[in-house]
Design brief:
Layout (H helix, E strand, L loop, with lengths): L1 H4 L5 E4 L4 H13 L4 E4 L11 E4 L5 H8 L4 E4 L9 H21 L4 E7 L23 H20 L2 E7 L1 E2 L8 H4 E2 L1 H13 L5 E6 L11 H5 L12 H8 L15 H4 L12
Parallel strand pairs: 1-2, 1-4, 2-3, 4-5, 5-6, 6-9, 7-8
Helix pairs in contact: 2-7, 3-4, 4-5
The chain binds D-galactaro-1,5-lactone (15L).
Length: 277
Protein backbone atom coordinates (compact mmCIF):
# COMPACT_ATOMS: atom_id res chain seq x y z
CA UNK A 1 0.00 0.00 0.00
CA UNK A 2 1.87 3.03 -1.28
CA UNK A 3 -0.02 5.51 0.90
CA UNK A 4 0.58 3.62 4.10
CA UNK A 5 4.28 3.29 3.33
CA UNK A 6 4.81 6.97 2.70
CA UNK A 7 5.55 8.20 6.20
CA UNK A 8 6.48 11.66 4.97
CA UNK A 9 3.15 12.52 3.45
CA UNK A 10 1.71 15.77 4.72
CA UNK A 11 -1.77 15.49 6.25
CA UNK A 12 -3.79 18.65 6.86
CA UNK A 13 -6.61 18.57 9.40
CA UNK A 14 -9.22 21.36 9.10
CA UNK A 15 -11.53 22.17 12.00
CA UNK A 16 -8.79 21.00 14.33
CA UNK A 17 -9.82 23.41 17.10
CA UNK A 18 -13.45 22.20 17.15
CA UNK A 19 -15.11 19.68 19.45
CA UNK A 20 -14.31 16.53 17.44
CA UNK A 21 -10.89 17.87 16.44
CA UNK A 22 -9.93 18.39 20.07
CA UNK A 23 -11.04 14.85 21.02
CA UNK A 24 -9.25 13.00 18.23
CA UNK A 25 -6.03 14.98 17.69
CA UNK A 26 -4.04 12.96 20.24
CA UNK A 27 -5.38 9.69 18.78
CA UNK A 28 -4.42 10.68 15.24
CA UNK A 29 -1.03 12.00 16.36
CA UNK A 30 -0.05 8.47 17.47
CA UNK A 31 -0.30 7.29 13.86
CA UNK A 32 0.50 10.48 11.99
CA UNK A 33 3.18 12.52 13.69
CA UNK A 34 3.61 15.84 11.93
CA UNK A 35 -0.10 16.49 11.45
CA UNK A 36 -0.74 20.03 10.18
CA UNK A 37 -3.69 21.51 12.02
CA UNK A 38 -5.86 24.22 10.54
CA UNK A 39 -8.75 26.30 11.77
CA UNK A 40 -9.58 29.97 12.16
CA UNK A 41 -8.32 29.99 15.75
CA UNK A 42 -5.30 28.12 17.04
CA UNK A 43 -5.98 25.25 19.49
CA UNK A 44 -5.18 26.12 23.11
CA UNK A 45 -2.02 23.99 22.99
CA UNK A 46 -0.15 22.04 20.34
CA UNK A 47 1.58 18.68 20.73
CA UNK A 48 5.30 18.82 19.98
CA UNK A 49 4.70 16.98 16.70
CA UNK A 50 1.87 19.25 15.49
CA UNK A 51 2.03 22.49 13.52
CA UNK A 52 -0.75 24.98 12.90
CA UNK A 53 -1.78 27.10 9.95
CA UNK A 54 -4.66 29.56 10.34
CA UNK A 55 -7.23 29.52 7.53
CA UNK A 56 -10.74 30.83 7.06
CA UNK A 57 -12.55 28.40 4.74
CA UNK A 58 -14.36 31.28 3.04
CA UNK A 59 -11.03 32.72 1.84
CA UNK A 60 -9.65 30.71 -1.11
CA UNK A 61 -6.10 32.10 -0.71
CA UNK A 62 -5.92 31.04 2.93
CA UNK A 63 -7.29 27.59 2.14
CA UNK A 64 -4.79 27.20 -0.72
CA UNK A 65 -1.92 28.12 1.62
CA UNK A 66 -3.14 25.63 4.23
CA UNK A 67 -3.29 22.64 1.85
CA UNK A 68 -0.15 23.45 -0.14
CA UNK A 69 2.04 20.35 -0.46
CA UNK A 70 -0.51 18.12 1.29
CA UNK A 71 -1.01 14.49 0.35
CA UNK A 72 -4.28 14.16 2.30
CA UNK A 73 -6.83 16.40 3.97
CA UNK A 74 -9.12 15.54 6.87
CA UNK A 75 -11.90 18.09 6.45
CA UNK A 76 -13.84 18.63 9.66
CA UNK A 77 -13.94 22.41 9.32
CA UNK A 78 -17.14 24.42 8.91
CA UNK A 79 -20.34 25.14 10.79
CA UNK A 80 -21.11 22.07 12.91
CA UNK A 81 -24.80 22.46 13.62
CA UNK A 82 -27.96 24.11 12.26
CA UNK A 83 -27.57 27.81 11.63
CA UNK A 84 -28.80 30.80 9.69
CA UNK A 85 -28.57 30.36 5.92
CA UNK A 86 -25.69 32.79 5.53
CA UNK A 87 -23.57 31.01 8.14
CA UNK A 88 -24.19 27.64 6.44
CA UNK A 89 -23.65 29.10 2.98
CA UNK A 90 -20.31 30.67 3.86
CA UNK A 91 -18.74 27.92 5.97
CA UNK A 92 -20.24 24.72 4.57
CA UNK A 93 -21.12 25.45 0.95
CA UNK A 94 -18.57 28.03 -0.17
CA UNK A 95 -16.03 26.81 2.39
CA UNK A 96 -16.38 23.17 1.31
CA UNK A 97 -16.03 24.13 -2.36
CA UNK A 98 -12.93 26.20 -1.57
CA UNK A 99 -11.45 23.22 0.24
CA UNK A 100 -12.01 20.67 -2.54
CA UNK A 101 -10.88 23.08 -5.24
CA UNK A 102 -7.72 24.09 -3.35
CA UNK A 103 -7.04 20.40 -2.71
CA UNK A 104 -7.37 19.60 -6.42
CA UNK A 105 -5.05 22.45 -7.41
CA UNK A 106 -2.51 21.33 -4.80
CA UNK A 107 -2.56 17.73 -6.07
CA UNK A 108 -4.07 16.32 -2.86
CA UNK A 109 -4.72 12.60 -3.26
CA UNK A 110 -7.21 11.92 -0.47
CA UNK A 111 -9.95 13.86 1.29
CA UNK A 112 -11.90 12.65 4.29
CA UNK A 113 -15.09 14.70 4.54
CA UNK A 114 -17.03 15.02 7.80
CA UNK A 115 -20.59 14.53 6.60
CA UNK A 116 -23.40 14.07 9.07
CA UNK A 117 -26.39 11.93 9.92
CA UNK A 118 -28.40 15.09 9.26
CA UNK A 119 -27.98 14.53 5.50
CA UNK A 120 -30.48 11.69 6.02
CA UNK A 121 -32.21 12.93 9.17
CA UNK A 122 -35.78 12.61 7.87
CA UNK A 123 -35.60 8.81 7.60
CA UNK A 124 -37.91 7.33 10.21
CA UNK A 125 -36.27 5.70 13.20
CA UNK A 126 -38.04 2.43 12.46
CA UNK A 127 -36.23 2.09 9.13
CA UNK A 128 -32.68 0.77 8.78
CA UNK A 129 -30.87 2.58 5.99
CA UNK A 130 -27.83 1.90 3.88
CA UNK A 131 -25.45 4.55 2.60
CA UNK A 132 -26.95 4.52 -0.89
CA UNK A 133 -30.39 5.86 0.08
CA UNK A 134 -31.57 9.16 -1.36
CA UNK A 135 -30.52 12.01 0.91
CA UNK A 136 -33.34 13.40 3.10
CA UNK A 137 -31.74 16.34 4.93
CA UNK A 138 -33.42 17.61 8.05
CA UNK A 139 -31.98 21.14 8.13
CA UNK A 140 -29.99 23.70 6.16
CA UNK A 141 -26.99 22.11 7.87
CA UNK A 142 -28.04 18.66 6.58
CA UNK A 143 -28.40 20.09 3.05
CA UNK A 144 -24.85 21.45 3.29
CA UNK A 145 -23.58 17.98 4.23
CA UNK A 146 -25.43 16.42 1.27
CA UNK A 147 -23.76 19.10 -0.87
CA UNK A 148 -20.34 18.18 0.51
CA UNK A 149 -20.95 14.51 -0.31
CA UNK A 150 -21.97 15.44 -3.86
CA UNK A 151 -18.88 17.62 -4.22
CA UNK A 152 -16.74 14.74 -3.00
CA UNK A 153 -18.26 12.46 -5.66
CA UNK A 154 -17.54 15.07 -8.33
CA UNK A 155 -13.88 15.42 -7.35
CA UNK A 156 -13.52 11.64 -7.14
CA UNK A 157 -15.10 10.96 -10.53
CA UNK A 158 -13.78 13.94 -12.43
CA UNK A 159 -10.33 14.31 -10.89
CA UNK A 160 -9.50 10.91 -9.44
CA UNK A 161 -9.31 12.07 -5.83
CA UNK A 162 -9.93 9.39 -3.21
CA UNK A 163 -12.84 10.70 -1.14
CA UNK A 164 -14.35 9.21 2.00
CA UNK A 165 -17.46 10.80 3.47
CA UNK A 166 -18.20 9.88 7.06
CA UNK A 167 -21.85 10.47 7.99
CA UNK A 168 -21.05 11.16 11.59
CA UNK A 169 -23.59 10.38 14.29
CA UNK A 170 -22.49 11.95 17.56
CA UNK A 171 -18.91 11.76 18.80
CA UNK A 172 -18.15 11.75 22.51
CA UNK A 173 -17.08 9.71 25.49
CA UNK A 174 -20.65 8.34 25.86
CA UNK A 175 -24.09 8.64 24.21
CA UNK A 176 -25.80 11.81 25.44
CA UNK A 177 -29.40 10.53 25.36
CA UNK A 178 -31.61 7.73 23.99
CA UNK A 179 -31.37 8.92 20.37
CA UNK A 180 -27.60 8.86 20.60
CA UNK A 181 -27.73 5.15 21.64
CA UNK A 182 -28.44 4.57 17.94
CA UNK A 183 -25.89 6.99 16.46
CA UNK A 184 -23.06 7.36 18.96
CA UNK A 185 -19.42 6.95 17.94
CA UNK A 186 -16.43 6.91 20.25
CA UNK A 187 -13.38 9.08 19.52
CA UNK A 188 -11.37 5.88 18.95
CA UNK A 189 -13.84 4.55 16.39
CA UNK A 190 -14.04 7.75 14.37
CA UNK A 191 -10.26 7.82 14.35
CA UNK A 192 -10.34 4.30 12.93
CA UNK A 193 -12.69 5.42 10.13
CA UNK A 194 -10.48 8.40 9.31
CA UNK A 195 -7.48 6.09 9.14
CA UNK A 196 -9.33 3.85 6.67
CA UNK A 197 -10.04 6.93 4.55
CA UNK A 198 -6.38 7.91 4.67
CA UNK A 199 -4.99 4.49 3.85
CA UNK A 200 -7.33 2.03 2.19
CA UNK A 201 -6.12 1.35 -1.36
CA UNK A 202 -9.59 0.68 -2.83
CA UNK A 203 -11.34 3.92 -1.96
CA UNK A 204 -12.43 6.05 -4.90
CA UNK A 205 -15.62 7.52 -3.47
CA UNK A 206 -17.23 6.03 -0.40
CA UNK A 207 -19.79 6.97 2.20
CA UNK A 208 -19.72 5.28 5.59
CA UNK A 209 -21.70 5.85 8.76
CA UNK A 210 -19.75 7.29 11.67
CA UNK A 211 -21.19 4.99 14.33
CA UNK A 212 -19.76 2.59 16.89
CA UNK A 213 -21.01 -0.99 17.29
CA UNK A 214 -24.44 0.10 18.51
CA UNK A 215 -27.16 -2.50 19.09
CA UNK A 216 -29.89 0.06 18.42
CA UNK A 217 -28.31 1.34 15.20
CA UNK A 218 -30.53 2.63 12.38
CA UNK A 219 -27.72 2.20 9.86
CA UNK A 220 -26.36 -0.63 7.77
CA UNK A 221 -22.64 0.04 7.90
CA UNK A 222 -21.56 -2.98 5.87
CA UNK A 223 -19.42 -0.93 3.49
CA UNK A 224 -17.36 0.35 6.42
CA UNK A 225 -16.93 -3.23 7.65
CA UNK A 226 -15.90 -4.33 4.16
CA UNK A 227 -13.19 -1.67 4.29
CA UNK A 228 -11.92 -3.17 7.54
CA UNK A 229 -13.78 -1.10 10.16
CA UNK A 230 -13.98 -2.95 13.48
CA UNK A 231 -15.61 -0.58 15.97
CA UNK A 232 -14.89 -1.23 19.63
CA UNK A 233 -17.38 1.18 21.23
CA UNK A 234 -20.83 -0.14 22.22
CA UNK A 235 -23.51 2.40 23.06
CA UNK A 236 -25.43 -0.17 25.11
CA UNK A 237 -22.62 -0.17 27.68
CA UNK A 238 -23.78 3.38 28.52
CA UNK A 239 -27.56 2.83 28.37
CA UNK A 240 -28.22 3.79 32.00
CA UNK A 241 -26.46 7.13 31.48
CA UNK A 242 -28.33 7.84 28.23
CA UNK A 243 -31.72 6.99 29.76
CA UNK A 244 -31.03 9.18 32.82
CA UNK A 245 -30.09 12.10 30.57
CA UNK A 246 -33.17 11.54 28.39
CA UNK A 247 -35.42 11.81 31.45
CA UNK A 248 -34.29 15.44 31.83
CA UNK A 249 -35.85 16.46 28.50
CA UNK A 250 -39.50 16.22 27.51
CA UNK A 251 -40.87 14.30 24.53
CA UNK A 252 -40.53 15.79 21.04
CA UNK A 253 -43.57 14.57 19.04
CA UNK A 254 -41.89 15.21 15.69
CA UNK A 255 -38.22 14.74 16.54
CA UNK A 256 -38.85 11.41 18.25
CA UNK A 257 -40.15 9.94 14.98
CA UNK A 258 -37.14 10.71 12.84
CA UNK A 259 -33.45 9.85 12.97
CA UNK A 260 -32.35 13.51 13.02
CA UNK A 261 -34.22 14.23 16.28
CA UNK A 262 -34.48 17.91 17.17
CA UNK A 263 -32.99 18.92 13.81
CA UNK A 264 -36.22 17.61 12.22
CA UNK A 265 -38.63 19.29 14.64
CA UNK A 266 -36.95 22.71 14.60
CA UNK A 267 -38.92 25.11 12.36
CA UNK A 268 -41.22 22.20 11.39
CA UNK A 269 -44.55 23.28 9.83
CA UNK A 270 -45.60 20.04 8.11
CA UNK A 271 -47.89 17.20 9.11
CA UNK A 272 -45.49 14.52 10.47
CA UNK A 273 -47.35 11.89 8.43
CA UNK A 274 -46.27 13.70 5.27
CA UNK A 275 -42.61 14.02 6.26
CA UNK A 276 -39.82 11.61 5.42
CA UNK A 277 -39.82 8.74 2.93
C1 LIG B 1 -24.15 16.70 14.09
O1 LIG B 1 -23.94 16.60 12.88
C2 LIG B 1 -23.63 17.84 14.87
O2 LIG B 1 -22.38 18.27 14.40
C3 LIG B 1 -23.54 17.54 16.33
O3 LIG B 1 -23.44 18.77 16.99
C4 LIG B 1 -24.74 16.76 16.87
O4 LIG B 1 -25.85 17.56 16.86
C5 LIG B 1 -24.94 15.52 16.04
O5 LIG B 1 -25.01 15.81 14.67
C6 LIG B 1 -26.18 14.72 16.44
O6 LIG B 1 -27.02 14.42 15.58
O7 LIG B 1 -26.28 14.36 17.59
Amino acid sequence: MADRDDKNRKIVFTGASGGIGTMIRPLLAKHYPGLVLSDRAKPASLLASETFVAADLTKPDEVAAAVKGAHSVIHLGGHSTEGAWDAILQANIIGCYNLFEAARLAGVKRVIFASSNHAVGFYPRKRKIRTDVTVRPDSRYGVSKAFGEALGALYADKHGMSVTCIRIGNVGPKPLDVRRLSIWISPEDITQLIRIGLEHPDIRFDIVYGASDNEASWWDNSRARQLGYRPTGKAEDHRAHAVAEQAKVGPDPVGDLFQGGTFTSAEFTNDPKRAGP
